[in-house]
Design brief:
Strand content: 5-15%
CATH class of one domain: Alpha Beta
Mean pLDDT: 85
Low-confidence stretches: 89-93
Distance between the termini: 89 Å
Shape: rod-shaped
């Protein structure tokens, strides 16, 4: 028996769980149920225990700095990496945490910086006696827990996207809507990098030819993968909506520019003949009609106003304005 690294739980395979006290040696792999060992990869004592239990190569895989979700099968064992949302009281915190899990017949080892007692909700399992019955069942529960953390956040993203659409319908400033939409689309990408790999990892483990996987384990893994897949489809639908909203923003900006250009064009069309007439009357040559009459200036001004009014009326009837 090896010295206890950090946290040790014993599952009886019937829904019961026992949290072994500090200083208790890690039990041998049981005939029924399984043992869960959890530790921090930054803890040298935990890393040393891992090297003695699963070897240096496997320890490096389990405690490595890679943050990619994966499922690596080694003989009749597997290393599973799950990326989950880090628990935080700040709704804007979207940081991720990797759970690296070693599973074999009768034993699971979790390498993570999270507080696993709180994350696994061990107290609830002890009270309800509905704890995982096998290492694969534990993986499925963790996958569902990761999906549970993402689901309300995805709903919030949908509400925020609805807000952007409503602001466009209310003729809000497109620049503000464009910035909010760009932030949303970045968040969609961030979440997709967690949801789709989660589904792929669970699907991969479910189809692997591991001797300790039962039909019930495969069913649970398939259900967890399906849950992750549905979240991915919801994210995909939101992403497609975001593309349509972006096109709507572009259309709104184009419409505003067209209106501006139309006004400038109308002003130019109205002023062009007036400019020509006033320019001709302003030439410094002899022969300008009524150059010596005191009423000539106001007559020209009145004529220009009448011409401008006629051009405006014609453009309105032609529905150019």
């Amino acid at each position: 028996m090896a010295t206890k690294p950090q946290l040790v739980f014993r599952f009886d395979g019937k829904g019961g769980i026992e949290h072994l006290s500090e200083g208790t040696p890690v039990p041998e792999i049981p005939a029924k149920g399984f043992v869960l060992v959890s530790g921090d990869p930054r803890d040298p004592a935990f890393v040393e225990w891992l090297r003695a239990e699963i070897g240096a190569f496997n320890t490096d895989l389990l405690t490595g700095t890679s943050n990619r979700a994966r499922c690596t099968v080694l003989d009749d064992k597997a290393i599973v990496g799950l990326r989950i949302m880090r628990p935080s009281k700040d709704d804007a915190d979207k940081s991720r945490q990797l759970l690296s899990i070693w599973i074999e017949k009768g034993r699971a080892i979790i390498s993570s910086e999270l507080n696993m007692v709180d994350f696994l909700n061990v107290a609830h399992w002890q009270q309800s006696r509905h704890a995982p019955t096998s290492p694969a069942d534990l993986i499925a529960r963790l996958g569902l827990r990761a999906a549970d953390r993402l689901e309300p956040l995805i709903e919030q993203l949908g509400d925020r996207l609805d807000g952007v659409e409503e602001s466009l319908m209310a003729k809000a400033a497109p620049a503000d809507a464009r910035m909010r939409l760009a932030e949303l689309r970045r968040t969609f990408i961030h979440f997709r990098r967690m949801v789709w790999p989660l589904r792929d990892v669970l699907n991969t483990l479910e189809i692997e030819d591991l001797s300790f996987l039962t039909s019930r384990d495969r069913t649970r893994l398939r259900e967890a993968a399906g849950r992750a897949g549905r979240l991915g489809e919801e994210l995909q639908a939101l992403s497609e909506r975001a593309v349509l909203v972006h096109e709507q923003i572009l259309d709104t900006r184009a419409e505003q520019m067209n209106k501006t250009i139309l006004v400038l064009t109308a002003v130019t069309v109205i002023l062009l003949p007036l400019t020509v007439i006033s320019g001709m009357l302003g030439m410094n040559v002899a022969g300008i009609p009524f150059a010596g009459e005191p009423w000539a200036f106001w007559a020209v001004v009145g004529g220009l106003v009448v011409i401008a009014g006629l051009i405006f009326v014609i453009m309105r009837k032609a529905k150019w304005l």
